[in-house]
Amino acid sequence: MTLLKHSIALITFAVAGAASAADPATQPRMDMSMPGMAMPGMKMDAAKPTEADSATLTRGIVKKVDTDQGKITIQHEALENLGMPAMTMVFRAADATVLQGAKAGEAVAFRAEKVNGALVVTRLVAQ
């Protein structure tokens, strides 16, 4: 093939690849609770929290509140008591009172704990 044919073929494949890429906004949303997911490097086998740990709250921003499902999505700093890095994730609420007054966009301090294998917000305070 000549240089021109190679160039045309390369451009054609590049344009076809870009055109076939899906718009991220049209992709289905995933539940990020991650039960059973292997997370090497995270201290999942850490010792039980101490009394001092239980007083520690983590800062975050509420992204979504689903009172019907008892869930809250929080973009948070590292969860030191759980050995988890900063990220955005969905948590279950320990009970309905935890979600009372919470709204998307609000800065919060919260306590998350692992309860029966699920990550649960046990305390939530508006900042």
UniProtKB/TrEMBL annotation:
<dbReference type="InterPro" id="IPR042230">
    <property type="entry name" value="CusF_sf"/>
</dbReference>
<protein>
    <submittedName>
        <fullName>Copper-binding protein</fullName>
    </submittedName>
</protein>
<dbReference type="InterPro" id="IPR021647">
    <property type="entry name" value="CusF_Ec"/>
</dbReference>
<feature type="signal peptide">
    <location>
        <begin position="1"/>
        <end position="21"/>
    </location>
</feature>
<dbReference type="Pfam" id="PF11604">
    <property type="entry name" value="CusF_Ec"/>
</dbReference>
<keyword id="KW-0732">Signal</keyword>
